[in-house]
Amino acid sequence: MLTARGWWLLVSALFLTGVGVAISIRHGGLLAIAGFSLLTWLMIEAVQFHVRLRWTSKQLNLSRQIRDEHSAVNTLWTHRSFEVEVRVQSSSRLPSPYVIAEDRLPFGVELQGEASPAGTTITRYQPATIRYRIRCHSPGTIRFEGVRLRFADLQGFFFHETFIRQPLEFPVLPSLKSVDSHQRTKKRHNMLLPPGIHHLRRAGSGSELLDLRDYRPGDPPKMIAWKASARKDKLITKEFESEVPVRCTLFVDCSQAMRLGPPGRNSLSRVIEIAATATQAALSNRDQVGLVLFDEAERSYLAPKRGQRHLMDVLRRLGSVAKLPPTAPTGDMRPLLEIAHAFAHEVYPDLLQKDINHLPWWVPILYPRPEWLRKLTLTDAVMPWWRRFSPSEWREMDLRKRLSVVLAWQQGIAPGGLAQLLEDDALFMESLQRFLTDHRIPFPVPLYDWRGNYVFADPLKIDQLSEALVATVRRARDNELFVIFADLFEHGPHLEPLRNAVKVALGRHHRVLLVAPWNPDFPPPGEAQARPKRDDDVIGLLRQATIERYHRAFEFVRKEFGRLGVQVVCAQSSEPTELILERMEQLRLGGIRR
Amino acid sequence: MKPSQAAEPDATPDLPSIVRYYVFIGAMSLFVLWFALLERGFDLFSLVPVGLGALGMAPALIPKSWRSMRVLRGAPTTLLAIGVIFTIVILEILFSPGRVSRSDFFRMTDLLLVTGLIGYFVCQFRVVTLTGNLVPIDDRPRADRLGGDEPESRNGVTAKPRELLHLAWLAPVCMIAGQLLWQWVLQSEKWDAEAGIVRLGISTEWWRLYVLIWILAVTGLLLTGAIALLRWHRLTRAEAEVLAQETLWNETRSEQRRIHRWLAWMHRKHARKKGILP
Question: Exposed (0-12), middle (13-18) or buried (19+): which is A240, by Cβ within 10 Å?
């Protein structure tokens, strides 16, 4: 591609040559010769640039390494700094044109300082190397798409942009926090139980005496309390306490409603932060922690265990769901189209080039989409022919067609799928959302459908949670703690299955704690909310109404589960983590005689 | 991520040595150009294009520490360089003494002028890329930079003095090519009736212009054709797949459109029945 600078010189050289030839009869060929020489120079530069570009750009490859202070790593941690090193190498014998290599920073990652310069000519023996430091603020997964390359000749007359795609995903785990715990992790006296084992006031095979009872046939003779038997003149059997580990199972809601909001600042991120802290605290006490992740469609179960490997497994699972964006079946296509096109232009510039992917200008004029496939606007109703010549309509059609080609290629849709994407809005929206989700790009979703119903209040989530809770109770052994992190605010009439499941858990002497996610922009329950300063502040009034509605929904959930003896806390405060640890402490101490 | 290098290539106030070399060679080329213009008989006017050229190179010499002169560093140097061409054209039209000798083949003035021009333009534009911006600025907002790209200059540290050797063969090659092409235009006038080619009564001026257009058109066609062929030959797998899909869509656009509009209508009908759509 000729740059503006190149065009200026080309036009000037053509002008010089043309004038030189025109006046050559009277003035001689001085200008014509100079013009021809300049044109020859431009031609030499063009050939040199294009040959080197085409020959080398296909043979460039990429290697990436992320390091901490010591060595290369495959897993990142929040609030820690890592060095990224990217090398672009060539296997071609020809050197490349001058290239500016730039690594595309994943979404939600902070660049620390400046990147090292990476402008060079890449040869077989001289790669382009980029080094920089990054820091992640929220758990999840970060995705490095690849490296943007901008080629130019040394005069800046020719330019070509491409992108070496090498998508690599790295999990970002919540950072390990030093949890202030009063629990012992070392066994100090022989009288004490091994770390992680606790007394339970139920008959078992422990060493502490729980009770004496009448002898039943089948009781082992060694359990007979001879002195008590002699005193009572009948056989008495000793019962010992159980010695069991304390188990805690975390139920984390990863449904669409939890993913709403900017990644890293939504309800899911906060909940994951609490869950990760509680897990680390419990595992540091050698207690066992299990995890259930659920959404509207599916759930996954990780049995309670202890150990460092299990901790990593839990954190990895939490990280894998932390940055999932929400998706909606319907919505406004235009903002998504703009976001996706801006991204595709950055990462797929080679597939958007006009020579392999373009929309003939006359197609929207001759074959516009019929009204029954479009959202009819007022302009359409007044001047139905106007939209055929509307620039915005044409641009949208152009963006959609060129993106459809990329989507069809990226998602492996069959060749006829391109036409289908152009005609079917629902399919195109679904495809577009999947494209953005795959690349971890956040995008806006509508909260309410055309009837005004909240889109993300899916009762299937309650069913999934109830079934998961009952299944976990079935697997549970002794008294366990079940901590439910779930958004139940919009599910008022559909909470019955969950209430029943909670009753089952309580009936089996387990403890249940409900942590309700909270919008970080809203004041927590019990805190006074600021009223709008003016009566005509519509946004302020709407915000106030929303907050009041939110508080009412929280109160409703608290009352509903309070009746069952389940405490409901808000995730926004620092209360949940402490409360979980306190409940586990109660479970630990529950069996010890004072 | 921010651009991989800052707008100004060196943090040190001193110029990279390669810039000094280019400024020196550019100044020498301007001197040669001035000599050629004097030889052509432009006298004092010959200083006009040379002065424009010198102004184009001067901003590169302003130290970065002189903050008050920052405005001059952003001077439109490309336009000043292009202005050199236009002033030479104007001087030639207005003040040229006319044809000096009958032969135009390898005259000293032509050789000096071409050497000076090529040398100056190479140095001028390379200095611009070393101190200004190398690639066009993409000002569309990005996730990590809302103002778009920052100006990217060439990294002066990685520039090697051996690239100056490029000039050693470039100027003579361009000079010889210019002479040969001009001779081709002149020789075409001699394709008269004796050789069986009729000029159809076209005057010599117009004939030369037609020949020029023919040369440019044929060269342009050959060049763009060769570059396009090279592009097709070196397509990546992804580009080839996209091209195949595009071709299929172009060939069967009407039929596919008809089928998929009916399918889309059916999907909408189902969605309406389910209450998903109004």
Answer: middle
- The C-alpha atoms of residue A223 and residue A218 are separated, in whole angstroms, by 11
- A151, part of any domain: no
DSSP tag of A357: S
Q: Which residues touch A260 (CB under 8 Å, ≥6 apart)?
A: A266, A267, A326, A445, A447, A456
Mutate to test the interface with A, among B21, B84, B248, B249 (most CBs of A within 10 A): B249
Backbone phi and psi for residue A570, each to the nearest 5 degrees, phi listed first: -95, 140
* Overall domain count for chain A: 4
Structural domain contains residue A127: no
The predicted model scores a pTM of: 0.78
> A40 and B238 in contact by Cβ < 8 A?
no
| CATH code at position A513 | 3.40.50.410
Give which of A136, A129, A91, A128 is closest to A109, Cα–Cα.
A136
Residues B100-150 have pLDDT tens digits of 555 667 788 888 888 999 999 999 999 888 888 888 888 777 766 677 777
The mean-pLDDT minimum among A524-528, A564-568, B36-40 falls in A524-528
Do A469 and A557 sit in the same domain of this protein?
yes
Whether B5 shows a pLDDT value over 70: the answer reads no
Residues A380 and A255 in one domain: no
DSSP letters along A231-255, please? HHTS-EEEEEEEEEE-EEEEEEE-S
The verdict on residue A169 lying in a domain is no
Residues of chain B in contact with residue A150, where contact means CB-CB under 8 angstroms, are: 135, 152
Range of the domain at A584: 247-325+453-588
For A359-373, the pLDDT digits (tens) are 998 888 888 877 777
| Interface mutation vs chain B, best among A9, A27, A39, A40, most B CBs within 10 Å | A40
Q: In this structure, are A466 and A579 located in the same domain?
A: yes
pLDDT average, residue stretch A43-56: 90
The CA distance from A375 to A201, in Å, is 67
Chain A residues within an 8 Å CB radius of B80: none
List the 445-484 stretch of A: residues with Cβ below 8 A of B. 449-451
- pLDDT for position A139: 83
A565 CB near a chain B CB, below 8 Å?
A: no
Strands A288-294, A247-253: parallel, antiparallel or unpaired by DSSP?
parallel
| B236: nearest CA partner in chain A | A58
Q: What is the pLDDT of residue B40?
A: 81
Cβ pair A54:B231 closer than 8 A: yes
Asked if A142 is an interface residue toward chain B (Cβ–Cβ < 8 A), one would say: no
Contact B157, B16 (CB under 8 A): yes
Residue A355 to residue A342: CA distance in whole angstroms:
19
Contact B271 A426 (CB under 8 A): yes
Other CB atoms within 10 Å distance of the CB of residue B10? 17
Give a yes or no: residue A294 inside a domain.
Answer: yes
Length of chain B: 278
Does one domain contain both A460 and A556?
Answer: yes
Pair A236, A262 in one domain: no
Q: What band does B192 get if pLDDT is binned at 50, 70 and 90?
A: low
Beta pairing, strands A140-152 & A159-173: antiparallel
Tokens standing for B159? Answer: 């520039």
- The rounded Cα A13 to chain-centroid distance in angstroms is 54
Does A254 share its domain with A391?
no
Q: What is the mean pLDDT of chain A?
A: 85
What pLDDT band is residue A185 in, cutting at 50, 70 and 90?
Answer: low
Are both A380 and A424 inside the same structural domain? Answer: yes
Picking from A3, A30, A330 by the largest number of B CB atoms within 10 A of its own CB, the best residue to mutate is: A30
My answer on whether A490 and A394 are in the same domain is: no
> Which residues on chain A are in Cβ contact (under 8 Å) with B244?
415
Amino acid occupying residue A408: A
